Amino acid sequence: FSGRRAQLAILEKGAKMLPKEIGCILLWLMVMVNGLPVKEDTDYWLKYGDNRLYKTLKHQHILGHAKNVIIFVGDGMGMSTITAARIYKGQLMGQLGEDFQLSYEKFPNVGLSKTYNVDKQVPDSAGTATAIFTGVKSNYYMLGLDSMAKFNVCDEEVNEKSKLDSIMKWAQEAGKDTGVVTTTRITHATPAALYAHSNHRDWECDSEIPSIYKNCIKDIARQLVEDEPGKNFKVMLAGGQRQFGLPVNPDPDDDSCDRTDNRNLLDTWMEGRENYQFVNNTEELMNADVQSLDYLLGLFSPGHMPYALERDDSPKGSPSLQQMTSRAIEMLSKSPSGFVLMVEGGRIDHGHHKNYAKLALHEAAQLDDAVEYAAAHTNPKETLIIVTADHSHAFTINGYPKRGNDILGYANKTALDGLYETLAYANGPGFKTHRSESRDCSSALWRIADEEERRQSRYRHFSPMYLDDETHGGEDVPVYSRGPSSHLLSGTFEENYIAHVIGYSACIGPPTKFCSAYGETLPYRTARTHTAHPAVSEILLALRSICQLS
What we know:
Helix content: 25-40%
Strand content: 5-15%
Largest sheet: 10 strands, mixed
Radius of gyration: 26 Å
Number of strands: 14
Oligomer: single chain
């Protein structure tokens, strides 16, 4: 056999020769006992190595500059999430899973991004998104402001000096169209870093800003519709009706803010516009005549959009990430000067925070569907596509499960072996799910969840340390890319470097100084090293002299 698909086809053919019920049972038993048959012998692996090497040797970098840029951000989609999502999606398609490839894993270039904030070893999404989109690393929980601004304290003078322009501002100044797609609120941390400047990421509504600062700063939603670059976005598809001041039905899962200033920001957004459309369900989105529209706004839920496994996929429900991405690309592709689009799979992060591994992995698979669409409907010679995460999570793939084992299942088979799951968290609310209620010293510390419970989409995987919300992880995250100048995103680099490559590839923003013809002398500025304050330096010199330190 040349591969497992051919082998499975032969098994299926044989099973069909028997009565239906017997054939199905026989096939099921064969797969359960032996796994999907695979002949991965020496010849298989040698051929794989040859094919991979040949493909790599044959590959030529796409030089020059991009007309369009699409950056996909899987919020919280660290390496363990990508690996688990790869297996999960492969198994959904009837394969073993481990050797499946997500669409962006076929991209020719991959690098590693260092995600720490200026003031935090393990970051949050506001600081990381600010780095990715502005080219400048900043502080934890702050948006669009450099590290000189203070968290949770608004100082107009300091903020004005600390404001950072994003790739969207760069693109608009270069005449390109811009857009945002996310499964979170449009005012949430990652999308907000594209347009807002805020000392606190939670200042999404006027009601969230401390009263002493209400005259110092606009809430994030107002910045989106009133200020550049947000008010110039050609397409915005997301959740966040409450932040716009729209009337909504109560949602027990939505703990986001409400406006108290009686503003309807949809009215503000519509003022002075022509050829625009507002949509709030799948049918309206898919029927929108994007070829004739200049502006498209879709808000599909009061707060964050539903998890993909739980969304209403009827015409009156909310669209998938792939559907939103497809409409955004169609809308922006009309621009003769090109476009910059950010697409976020934001609920990967939310699933992990609650230890909902299945929901998180399904969200990651949905992001891959969107990437696959974008890759199939753009030209790699003119469109730079980047797929990355802003940070990781305290999420592990552990144990020694057999090949093809259910990625959501147990890593071993019997309670005698100390039954535990392949996927687990270092902390989070899953602690209470698995902690035995018995306080009898003779009883087990942890209980074993039954299969019906484990099949639920909101089943929490194991955590040995209770927290209301599981934390982020601090390891580097991968950056996959294809298209013009994508080879520059290789190696290990600071997260803010991504914006610099985008700027150079699309010739937008400060990096345009490097867009000269080959052969010219290009400007180069050496980065400052971490130097101490002069007073500190004097003290250190004195200490070295007195203590005879080298």
